């Protein structure tokens, strides 16, 4: 089960009403309501950012470019996270060895 930033986990389905890029949506998921709202706000912000920079783009292109941008940010963060884990792993092993002595 995924862990959310505030540590809340839920098995029940939550739903919210969200406005994303001027369109009404009902967002459903097992995530906490606060998480669903945050995700909706992030998508809305990203689409507005792209739409304002490219006012001639239609809704579908704005949505696809927003998805591409979010995926790019996610992959960069995941790569940074994995690199940090590689850096920390030898330190953790060294600490465990020191404790054994």
Automatic annotation (TrEMBL):
Matches recorded under InterPro entries: Bac_CellDiv_Activator (IPR053712), Cell_div_ZapA-like (IPR007838), Cell_div_ZapA-like_sf (IPR036192)
Keyword Cell division recorded: yes
Keywords, alphabetical: Cell cycle, Cell division, Cytoplasm, Septation
Keyword Cell division: yes
Predominant cellular place of this UniProt entry's protein: cytoplasm
Subcellular location: Cytoplasm
Segments crossing the lipid bilayer: none
Protein's GO biological process: cell division
Quaternary structure annotation from Swiss-Prot or TrEMBL: Homodimer. Interacts with FtsZ.
Entry-linked NCBIfam families: PRK14126.1
Protein purpose: Activator of cell division through the inhibition of FtsZ GTPase activity, therefore promoting FtsZ assembly into bundles of protofilaments necessary for the formation of the division Z ring. It is recruited early at mid-cell but it is not essential for cell division.
The name this protein goes by in its record: Cell division protein ZapA
Organism encoding this protein: Tumebacillus lipolyticus
